[in-house]
Specification:
The structure is a homodimer of 392-residue chains. By secondary structure, chain A is of the alpha/beta class. Chain A contains 15 helices and eight strands. Chain A has a six-stranded parallel sheet with strand order 1-8-5-4-2-3, sandwiched between helices. A two-stranded antiparallel ribbon of chain A has the order 6-7. Chain A binds chain B through residues 1-18, 209-216, 218-220, 222-224, 226-227, 239-240, 242-243, 246-247, 250, 255, 258-259, and chain B through 1-18, 209-216, 218-220, 222-224, 226-227, 239, 242-243, 246-247, 250, 255, 258-259. Strand 1 (4-14) of chain A pairs antiparallel with strand 1 of chain B.
Chain lengths: 392, 392
């Protein structure tokens, strides 16, 4: 185990009807709120009205900005920053999924940043402060409700970059799995693929002696997969969604990655798919992850045998480790299919001519700074092209 | 899963040489510190000197109060409160194990409480504020380094009571497992029994549909047990101690108990053993836990089959659930013995004449208010006597 630091101060309020508490929960921090959301879904499910009522009851005034789209855009972030400055907003409240939350985080950072907020995502400036923010989650996936991470797409440059800082951990996160029960099947697949990837990025490591975090990763992967299948059978199953939702929170709140080197190559590659063709993040991850596994597993086959046995339940002879690993990956692919995901880039309308550009962007080579990606096995742009080819 | 709320704001800094950071870490909160500890061990291991140096380097002044003993005494808490008030202390820093931390928490509460701090432990007054406090941990066991709990013994009344509030979660917890490598074997056993009990108290529940927290409890139990045996073989094994230490933190920081009813009968019973005969808390728990399991398992045998299979690795036929459960409990007893623990009350010098008084105190009957204890199966005083008899 490596030395580590972790601090997860977000107050998590989880369960049925918890949305009504938002006003009282953020009252200590908020005088004037920016209410930030996507489209009509928060209105359709009643959350928009519940939120307004709760804010009003707590005597908190607010302005609002809707219109967040999946792979949230920098242009709306700029708009939000301007609005907050003009209106004297001191708190940002996101209601929605990971996109609304990530966009809200970018606004919270941008209000307190002197220059262009994109510079922070582009590693050209440091975050020094952010408005406090809170979240009411409607889609389990991104884990952004408790994380110190945000990903934003600069649609002009065609780049999707992430940033991380404890300064953008929400002070309050309300998670009511009742909202999940009205999602379409596709959102289950996208969400679960993202949740599992958040765990995989931490789980697959060359760091040894990590029994506690290994075990937590494995048990949460098993719990999420079991319950995702229950959701796929009956999308109104509250209890199953509650497990998926809780798994999604812990997957990305930091605790599964403590004391171990992490990978993050699949996320790095996927951001290029999303930036290139506006692919749903989870859809891209489901395509890339099995291919990545096949490409890298020989770097530390024991880690992948452990995955196949402890997570995917492969029980055959241990004398053929490659066979065990490939069976584990094959079971993961079958699982993805069962929750409605596709397994090839062509099904995402991404063809080979685009591979080299995307690979070079993911690894930095495109910008003349090839740093590579991935902690488990460092991938240069040719590696990434090879992985894209494995799933074409 | 039940609705729940959780907030764990403690900044955890974990690993080798981390003690030197204490001054810088608490500087934002502390002008004048009470340095609180037990006996000579913190001096022997160099921590006392390292702490003083780090505080001095950060420009933080301090007064000190040593003398905390296992099952920390109310009289020293009173002394600490007086000292803090006299010296204008605004921050409490505990260096040591769970006893030093629990005593420090009581002092932090008492300084801010108008009346007698014991009233808060005795449920006669509410906590409304506490000085901020931090911890450098030297013994993994109590989980007090990140928890909102404190247990103190009123030696005059012969009562050992606990209290819980998010107000007493440390703002900073430094955990350097190097300190654990110089502990005697007995401390391994006491610590591991306490860590496992913190998980058991949350794990054994009648709440259904808790896959994620079930899985986390089970994986951490397995990880702690595996590494405790490695420590028992070689008490200088840093990596194994790091796993035990991390397991101990997560066991009691609250995350394993979210969304589920909890039990806490073994802790309630054990507090009477400790109050009666100054038994080490972990020693008492190791005696009581298997007996409690035998007494209550029929209330929900499937929960105990799951424990036997998923935690203790019992793999025989599922057609004889009682057999599986008893084999699981027997393996737990064997494990306790391997890490140096005893399994009978007589070995702790507690004989039958004391059982009734202790049972009546644990359940409230002694004070004319028999509320019973335990969420898995509610135990009245006769039940507790029966459990004591099972381990006499």
């Amino acid at each position: 185990m490596q030395n580590f630091e972790i601090q997860t101060p977000t107050k998590l309020v989880f369960g049925k009807n918890t949305q009504h508490q938002i006003g009282e929960l953020i009252k200590p921090f908020a005088k004037k709120v920016l209410l930030h959301y996507g489209g009509g879904s928060v209105k359709k499910i009643g959350l928009y009205d519940d939120t307004k009522k709760s804010l009003e009851a707590a005597g908190i005034s607010f302005v609002e900005l809707g219109g967040v789209v999946p792979n949230p855009r920098l242009s709306l972030v700029y708009e939000g920053i301007e609005l907050c400055k003009k209106e004297g907003v001191d708190f940002v409240l996101a209601i929605g999924g990971g996109s609304a939350i990530d966009s809200a985080k970018a606004i919270a950072v941008g209000v307190k940043h002197e220059g262009d907020v994109w510079d922070i995502y582009d590693d050209k400036a440091q975050i020094t402060a952010a408005l406090p923010m809170a979240v009411i989650l409607t889609i389990p996936a991104a884990g952004s409700e408790m994380s110190g991470n945000s990903v934003v797409t600069n649609e002009k440059l065609g780049r999707k970059y992430g940033m991380g800082s404890d300064l953008i951990r929400p002070v309050v996160a309300i998670v009511n799995p009742e909202y999940f029960t009205s999602l379409p099947l596709a959102q289950l697949g996208y969400g679960v693929a993202d949740i599992m990837s958040h765990i995989f990025e931490r789980y697959f490591t060359q760091t040894t002696k990590c029994d506690i975090t290994d075990g937590m990763c494995e048990s949460i992967l098993r719990g999420v997969m079991k319950n995702a299948l229950l959701c796929a059978e009956d999308m109104s199953d509250y209890d199953a969604w509650a497990e998926v939702g809780l798994g999604g929170i812990i997957a990305h709140n930091g605790w599964l990655g403590i004391g171990r080197a992490q990978d993050w190559a699949c996320h790095g590659m996927e951001h290029e798919l999303s930036a290139y063709n506006d692919v749903a993040h989870g859809a891209g991850l489901a395509v890339l992850t099995p291919a990545w596994m096949k490409y890298v597993y020989k770097e530390n086959i024991n880690m992948f045998v452990q995955f196949a046995v402890n997570v995917m339940g492969v029980t055959q002879s241990f004398r053929e480790p490659d066979e065990i690993v490939l069976e584990g990956i094959s079971r993961l692919e079958e699982f993805y299919k069962k929750i409605g995901l596709v397994l090839t880039l062509s099904e995402l309308n991404i063809q080979e001519p685009a591979f080299e550009d995307m690979a070079k962007k993911a690894t930095g080579a495109y910008f003349g700074d090839e740093h590579g990606i991935g902690g488990f096995k460092k991938l240069m742009w040719q590696d990434v092209v090879n992985i894209f080819k494995l799933c074409k």
